[in-house]
Amino acid sequence: MEGWFLSGSPTPTRRSSLGSTEVFVVVEAQVVENFDRFKQEIHKEKNQEMLDFRKTFLTFAAVGLVFAGTASAQVATLASLTPVNGSGFAAVEGVTESLPVIQVAFTTPNTGVSSATLVLTSNVPFTMGTVTSTGKLDVTAAINAVGGTAATSVTLTGPTTLTVVFSGLSGTDQTISNIFISNLRVNASLAPSSSQITLSATGVAGGGITGSLAAVPVAFVVASEVAPVLAGAPNQSLCTISSKTVYPVVTTTIQENFPSAFKTGAEVTNGSAIAASQGTVLAVTFTNLVPGVSYYVPSSVTGTGSLILTAYTGATGATPATATAVGSPSVPGLVLLTPTGTSATAYYGVTSANGALSKAPRSLCLKTFPRLHW
């Protein structure tokens, strides 16, 4: 900014008289002196005004920095990703295995967030279905609490990528402490046994969330059952056996490989908007069967920890097998196996499990009964 200057300074008119000239010379000197003082005062005032302007400018700049700081706080920064209640298990045979509720935490404070976009990435494909009535993906995402304000949209933007969007946030929702994501499902059969299901998180530029989180294990991938154990029954003498009597021939012990591996249809659904068509179905195959002998298995088997299996006609677990009484004395509740060559398969669906109370793997024993024909 330039200083102020005066132009057109008055110059006194001289007279021909020497005396008058001397008088005017004195007056001119006083005028010049006074003018110099006036110029100094003007410059002092202007310099003071410029100084004041600089102070004002610096003050405005400081306020601008404060406002800029507030604007940057309108973004939530990723802090951590953890499975609620710890890592879970995913059966290596399962294609829609449920993952634990996921908690994504943010650094605080981050007030004034009006929208937020979060991207989750899994190391195996997501397999959540679409709810027919709403056309939305069967996933729940909420701010600050399970059951809090729901996400505007949750979409699959790739086989292993899930995008969660919150928009139009207001009130306490504009301070994001956590995002909870429920009912995530994955195809665990594409992961090697004894591996882990992992999730990573990333914010979207301009989407209200910044930062990224490296992949975190959220579930262990293991087989749902341990290898069955077979135990033979006591031998029967051919001289004493009867064609009308049913004799146990082998007992098969089946055990979970992790707690609650065997589930009912309701437990598979687990709060999802899409109901499971069946629970866990076990296929037990017997080989080296003797031709001409009818083999039976129980129509229902009760194991430990409220575990109950029911015999079905096939792997879909849709139709219960027909039970009948066999032999004399009569043995009720048996299902006839239908061999193919020298082998036959019995299918059992989990109809009662109460897995929520199961803290240890459960087991059950399946007896096979042959009946001789001659």
Describe the fold and architecture.
By secondary structure, this protein is an alpha+beta fold. The protein has three domains: 14-71; 76-222, Immunoglobulin-like; 229-372, no CATH class. Helix content is 16%, strand content 35%. The protein contains two helices and 24 strands. The chain has a six-stranded mixed β-sheet, with no helix packed on it. Strands 2-14-12-5-9-8 form a six-stranded mixed β-sheet, with no helix packed on it. Strand 6 (140-143) and strand 7 form a beta hairpin. The longest helix has 55 residues, at 18-72. The N and C termini lie far apart (121 Å).
- The ordered string of helix (H) and strand (E) elements is HEEEEEEEEEEEEEEEEHEEEEEEEE
Q: Reading side by side through the largest sheet, how are the strands ordered?
A: 7-6-10-4-1-13
Strand content: 25-35%
Q: How many domains comprise the coordinates?
A: 3
Detail the topology: elements first, then pairings:
Layout: H1 18-72, E1 76-83, E2 88-91, E3 97-98, E4 102-106, E5 116-122, E6 140-143, E7 149-150, E8 153-158, E9 161-166, E10 178-182, E11 185-186, E12 196-203, E13 209-210, E14 212-222, E15 229-232, E16 250-255, H2 265-269, E17 281-286, E18 293-298, E19 300-302, E20 308-312, E21 324-326, E22 331-336, E23 344-352, E24 363-372
Parallel strand pairs: 1-13, 2-14
Antiparallel strand pairs: 1-4, 3-11, 4-10, 5-9, 5-12, 6-7, 6-10, 8-9, 12-14, 15-16, 16-24, 17-23, 18-22, 18-24, 19-20, 20-23, 21-22
